[in-house]
Amino acid sequence: MHDFGQLALCSMAALAITVQAASRFNPYHIDNQEDRPSFWKVRCDEIMALCANVTKGRAEIVATTPGGYPVYALFYGDFSEEAPKTNWSAGASSSTWKSYVGDKPDVQTILFCAGIHGAEAEGVAAAVNWIQMLETGQDFRGKRDEELLTLMSKYRVIILPCVNMDGRSISPDHLRKASFEDFRAASQGVWKDGTLIGWRGSKMFFPLPLEQVSYPGGYPNFDGVNIMHDATPGDIRSEEAKALAKLCARWRVDLLLNAHSCEFAPGMEPPTRLTYPKSLQRAIGLRRRINQAFVDAGLRPASAQEGAEASNTINLNNLAIMASGALPLTLECSVSYDKPQNPSRTYTFDELMEPVFIMLKVVMSDGLEHAFVDRGNL
Question: 213 CB contacts (<8 Å, ≥6 apart)?
């Protein structure tokens, strides 16, 4: 068992920067919030300690946040090949797309990231438990998932358990049973006049003008950057977004799984239209299968509206497409929602992070039958 009282591989100088930056905004407090269970390890020191002590995987600090926190990537599988001799943009236009893929092992590469919005802890909790399972054979609940472990052996996987460590450091451990006002405040923040910034409002500024807020929410990092929308080529502001794009490019990532949370039932978001036509159809099909798996597990009502099959949204997923030709998918877990078959009962903590494990098994099973990206026929 790891000692979660130890901080991971941070110099005293980095820790001092973290304390100084975090002290500008106090962590968001919710009155009478229920205690988290012991397996819900989503605090920055817990994430850092787990990552620093892995032995089955390889840990790498791929970025440092404006607040001085390390952003860890954990590698499971064979990542021994040399860097590409060209990038995806050039290689895809050369005499053969294989000039980019090079001597990559003949297995697909999945990159999973969580906590891009720091207040959204469900994906972080799932990632931490997944890492613990890979390291010890069972997660922090004492649960072993043989199906997932078997599927994992068929892929190379990169796990970023929490990208926005700044936002996570000032966010509640969870938002289960939180009021709508607390959910919005903790997520997107509060202006100095006490009004909620809101989901749409948070995107009207880039970066968020921190001098105008009383609390920034867990969406942005300590520079006010919403990392999910730090996706303008030539103007990428955050080290966190740059690191994710570099990982995709360096390791020829085939599938990006981007874990977020919302106040509704869990579901896969419509994929972006700004991708290859065949990748779009592949993503639409995977989305349907994953959402049906949520229905079958009793986590999503069968009557839930799927909405449009694709979205015009531009975000971090588009960077992954440009960096490696990857197929990106965004999962929305639920922060607090009444179960569809029993509206009087809110999801348990186990159920709040279960969509991540369901998604992983659906996509990994499907990927054994059909490549996530058919690079030769895009």
Answer: 189, 190, 191, 192, 197
